[in-house]
TrEMBL record:
Lineage, highest ranks first: Bacteria, Pseudomonadati, Pseudomonadota, Betaproteobacteria, Neisseriales
Annotated keywords: Electron transport, Heme, Iron, Membrane, Metal-binding, Transmembrane, Transmembrane helix, Transport
Membrane-spanning ranges: 12-30
SUPFAM superfamilies: Cytochrome c (SSF46626)
Name of the molecule in the record: C-type cytochrome
InterPro entries: Cyt_c-like_dom (IPR009056), Cyt_c-like_dom_sf (IPR036909), Cyt_CIE (IPR002323)
Domain (Cytochrome c): residue spans on this chain: 66-146, 165-244
């Protein structure tokens, strides 16, 4: 008897339990959805991205003296974190379709946007220590990889001034590194300004000579022991070989 009277009560509690579960379930789903939205908002925040990028930019700074980084070095150290994969809507590296309309804006607009920031693109890619010329080199490097025809501002010295001249950069590198062997002809090095010693070496052309000297040759150490950029080393080879022409 008592069992029969309890049965409807149990059904009511089960039904109530289901209603409570459904309500709690909906509440949890709603909460999940909103917190998911919050997470996205944080990912898209320029400041958050820039803050996370900062150590990357700083570690790159030690690869080359400040102001001397090439476009490739800046790209690989900083810009790649977004532009490598096309993160946050950035035009992807090497993607001519994505870069085409941007390249069409022209050099001045592109560099201005990269310097000052543009929507989700942080100013200087979040690396405040980049010089304007380093940043412009990276813009040219990325633009050219996607079909652009920009000229990277040359590496070395005062921005846009006479010191940016490769001849000046080459002389500086020569006088600080190469002079140790090439001034006197130590260890069989072709002597500075010695036309007869240089003539047979210059026959294959500058590109080939730069390649050989970059790798090293017998007593000539790779890059002559110079630790700077390829562009600066090339300038030194040019300075050295021009003096023997
Ligand atoms: C935090 C991510 C991020 C980093 C790092 C970053 N960019 Fe960008 N960049 C973007 C985004 C996003 C856009 C697209 C912005 C838009 O069109 O709304 C963009 C666009 C650009 C553009 C095109 C601007 C235009 O007018 O269309 C250039 C040029 C550029 N970036 C250069 C650089 C350079 C150079 C670096 C490295 C020094 C760099 N970016 C680093 C996110 C980034
Ligand atoms: C430690 C001494 C030393 C230093 C420092 C040095 N060189 Fe050399 N370099 C040599 C020697 C030795 C050779 C000749 C190697 C041979 O032909 O066996 C040579 C050859 C060269 C050549 C000719 C390569 C060829 O194709 O025949 C170039 C170009 C050159 N050096 C450039 C440089 C530059 C630029 C620097 C400075 C960044 C530099 N060297 C620093 C020792 C040096």
């Amino acid at each position: 008897m008592s069992n029969e009277t309890k049965a409807p009560g149990q059904i009511v509690s089960i039904l109530l339990g289901i209603v409570v579960l459904v309500v709690v379930g909906i509440w949890l789903l709603a909460k999940l959805a909103t917190s998911g939205f919050d997470v996205n908002a944080e990912v898209m925040s320029k400041e958050a991205v820039a803050a996370r990028l900062k150590p990357v930019g700083e570690s790159v700074a030690s690869d080359a003296p400040p102001g001397m980084r090439t476009g490739e070095q800046v790209f690989k150290g900083i810009c790649i974190s977004c532009h490598g994969a096309g993160l946050a809507g950035s035009p992807k590296f090497g993607d001519a379709a994505a870069w085409g309309p941007r390249i069409a804006k022209g050099w001045d607009t592109l560099t201005q946007h990269a310097l000052q920031g543009f929507n989700a693109m942080p100013a200087k890619g979040g690396a405040a220590d980049l010089t304007d010329d380093e940043l412009k080199r990276a813009v040219a490097y990325m633009g050219n990889a996607a079909g652009g025809k920009f000229t990277e501002p040359p590496v070395g010295g005062a921005e846009g001034g006479a010191a940016a001249d490769p001849a000046v950069v080459g002389k500086k590198v020569y006088e600080s590194v190469c002079v140790a062997c090439h001034a006197s002809g130590a260890a069989g090095a072709p002597k500075f300004g010695d036309k007869a010693a240089w003539a047979p070496r210059l026959k294959p052309g500058l590109d080939e000579v730069v390649k050989i000297a970059t790798k090293g040759l017998n007593a000539m150490p790779p890059k002559g022991g110079f630790g700077g950029s390829d562009a600066e080393f090339r300038a030194a080879v040019e300075y050295l070989t021009n003096a023997a022409k």
